Amino acid sequence: MNKNKDCSKELEELRLRLTEAEETLNAIQNGQVDAVVVNGPRGTQVFTLEGADYAYRILIEEMNEGVALLTTDLSIYYCNGQLASMLGVPLENMIGKPITDLISSDQLKKCKIPPESSSNSNCKEEISIEVSDGNPMTIQININFLEKIKGYYVIVTDLTEQKKAEQELHNLLRDLERSNEELQQFAYVSSHDLQEPLRTIASFTQLLERRYKGKFDSDADEFMEYIVEAAKRMQRMILDLLEYSRVSTNQDEFKEIDVTETLNEALFNLRGTIEDNNALITHNDLPTVTADKSQLVKVFQNLISNAIKFKKENETPKIHISARKDPQQNQYIFGIQDNGIGMDPQYAERIFTLFQRLHTRDEYQGTGIGLSVAKRIVERHGGSIWVESELGKGSTFYFTLPNQLEAQK
After folding, report:
1. Entry pTM
2. In degrees rounded to 5, what are phi and psi of residue 141?
3. Please, which residues have CB within 8 angstroms of residue 177's CB and are 6 or more apart in sequence?
4. Rg (CA), the chain
5. Whole-number Å distance between alpha carbons of 268 and 257
6. Which residues contact 250 (CB under 8 A, 6 or more apart)?
7. Beta partners for 331?
8. How many Cβ atoms are within 10 Å of 163's Cβ, its own excluded?
9. Is the previous residue joined to 114 through a cis bond, with omega within 30 degrees of 0?
10. What whole-number distance in Å separates Cα of residue 84 and Cα of residue 94?
11. In 141-258, which ranges are continuous DSSP H helix?
12. Per-residue pLDDT tens for 35-61?
């Protein structure tokens, strides 16, 4: 009796499955459902794409990325036109094809496909493949196992043009770096070689001046003075140009340094100028930073000597150095404040340009390169430099240095 019930139950189940199969077949024949037949190791399998998914398939077809659905044995049972176009294979030839026919097994292993445990499989990897015309292609392949479809969902992005553009940019940067090095070397060699003829001009003109001064008319004596002064000025400019070029050529390794010690070294180098002008230099507590110490000494030296040079007449130069942390930008902001003559704010950017001057040489000596050197050094350290000033009320020069010690924690 029980056997009859079991047989009846099994028969009823078979009838239901047959009815479902007939309905599916009718739907396929009527175009209500798309279906794909895949012959694989597990035999013939039918995969259907329900009509409710039609809108999604339209969206997938319009994507710039290639999309495919794979069975667990890695056969393609759906892909969009973009993927077929990428790989140079007609769309109708993609269906039912093993993905290993298009992407080598060695490359797929980078994505851990096939996986040891398919339910936990997901991977995003850049790989190189060879398309049907034999040309190489770099793609990003994103593979995920979807429990709902018991298979893989694959997204392929063509990175070939992007990689080509990145390589071209790399080549341009390399050429630019080489060009900069050549220009720096040219500036160094030219500046060095130019000094010798200038020394000769200055020396022989001074010899003429000593030997024949007073034997010519007053105009001749004045002309010789002009020649000597011009030669000396050109020598100073060449030396300053050499210093500017050495910011990039004479570089030390960035190390952890105490800024107070660095400032003291700069003040020691300026001790003659400080004493001659009775300058009063003060400073707050200064931090420890990661920098090229010799170049940071030069920054303080140039900014402090600049503050002393442009002092008010009959007034003691007072210069204060400060530092504060800027946590938002993860940097330190240094300030060098003076009580000097100041400047019109409209010149705040111009003064950092190479050989730019706001005053005549008769008023203030120098070539106008000190601030340009300071700017180049600060920018090499990843910082910026600027000035806030008002005519007759002094100036404050600011520069920033990244707080790399904090970033390393």
Report:
1. 0.51
2. -110, 130
3. none
4. 39
5. 17
6. none
7. 326, 402
8. 14
9. yes
10. 7
11. 160-212, 218-249
12. 555 555 555 555 555 554 555 566 667
